[in-house]
Amino acid sequence: MDLKTQHREGFKVLAAAEGYVSRIKVSHYGYGKALYITHPNGYTTVYAHLQKFSPDIEAYVKKHQYSKESYEIELFPKAETLPIIKGSVVAYSGNSGGSLAPHLHFEIRDKSQRPMNPMLFGIDAKDTTNPIISSLYAYPLDGSSFINKSNTKQKLRLIPLDNGNYTTENIEAIGNIGFGIETNDRQDLAANKNGVYNIQTFINGSKNFELDFKRFAFNETKHINQLIDYEHYTQNKQNVQKLFRANNPLSIYKSVINEGILSIEDSTSSVYKIKISDFKNNESWVTVHISGSDKSITKPKTVNTTPYYIYANHSKQLKEGNFSVSFYNNTFYNDFYIDFKVKHDTLVLHKDIVPTQKSFTITYDASAYSNDDKKKLYIAKLVGYKDYPSYLHTKRSGNNLIASSKTLGKFTITSDTIKPQITPFNFKHKQWLSKYRYLKVKIDDQGSGISNYRATVNGKWILMEYDYKTKMLTHDFNDEIVTDTKNNFKLVVIDNVGNSSTFEALFYKK
């Protein structure tokens, strides 16, 4: 649950219940500064994207950061180290990590660390609004299934009814079909699009499928791409949730009969209903009338074949030119023809329209490059309309460059010979900083991206917090590490291929 903070940071974050701090994680990305409190009932509350921790927790964290000389840190305090009283201030809200705007990210996890819907614990929000249904699609699920004489996905026109529900135009179908829906929920006092709480489907009055969003496990996250129509999402940025299982082990499926697939026979008449509910039991319904007709059969769609076929439950290696790609067993959910081409130093590996459940490995033979040039090479994924090279973590083994990816698409080999940029933000050489609380430096890298940085004052390591969104490094003089009047500040920044820049400046402080 994301709690609004009026576009501001620094609100007090109170402990939801008695317990102890069981985990603290500080990272540049993801949850940023995150606090985990374990409670006597075994549940854990999580508070993320924090600006800072309460003074005692902040002191504990900084002690370990200075000991390890690292801003990024993960700690697991003993139960007696940081006890927590219900309602006590444990942190202050912020915008750290991957947060796009100031807010508090709050979770309640069960004993297996699975997040549960916090609304189950009495958190209330005014909601009298029915879930919103944006679009509905019908899917022929094999080569012998058709909807309205088509073997391809069909968008159905939603017809609003006076009671707030929907119907669609009648459809003709034959064979195995399924449906997908784009839906979200809104509360009365906010415009945000939230996920719905429950989706059920019925065929001729009998329930045949249910999605229940009561709790979720993090190790299931990868399967979300199989829950949605992934190709539709990557092409249109719309989340269409499939109302059939489609070889997906997610735990949120309930009461699934025949995988949620409808088998439509000739000369039959069926009524398919979809019920979407939010936590406050506001409901929206869609009704689809289906006529079974073999007259719906026309010529099947043409399957785009390539020389390369992927069997989802087998491993596969593809090789051309200097590139080789290794897919492991069950990298994909389904079998398919994959587009695989190599031209010069660019690899075309299908389009990013097929979901994966594992990473695959890309290897490039760089033996044609000199040793000096080889050190500056990396594997990048080409993203966006302009094919911008985005760095993939690249390892070197002999003459080979090796990287992993979780998405298909275009990849290339590129070189980074440009050093990172370092710019002092709020001070200059030989300046007095006695009235300053913070020392700020902006860092940037136009190629492979920032990998590491190290700052010292008079040879002693100092903690600098890195905000990748603003590209800012910040040191808090309240850490009381800087105690001399004359201070030599030195900052070394290294990018992902090893280019480094050094900045040095003298400042004075009383």
TrEMBL record:
Residues 8-65 form the M23ase beta-sheet core domain. Signal peptide: none annotated. SUPFAM superfamilies: Duplicated hybrid motif (SSF51261). Pfam families: Peptidase_M23. It comes from the Bacteria. PANTHER family: MUREIN HYDROLASE ACTIVATOR ENVC (PTHR21666:SF270), PEPTIDASE-RELATED (PTHR21666). This is M23 family metallopeptidase. The lineage of its organism: Bacteria, Pseudomonadati, Bacteroidota, Flavobacteriia, Flavobacteriales.
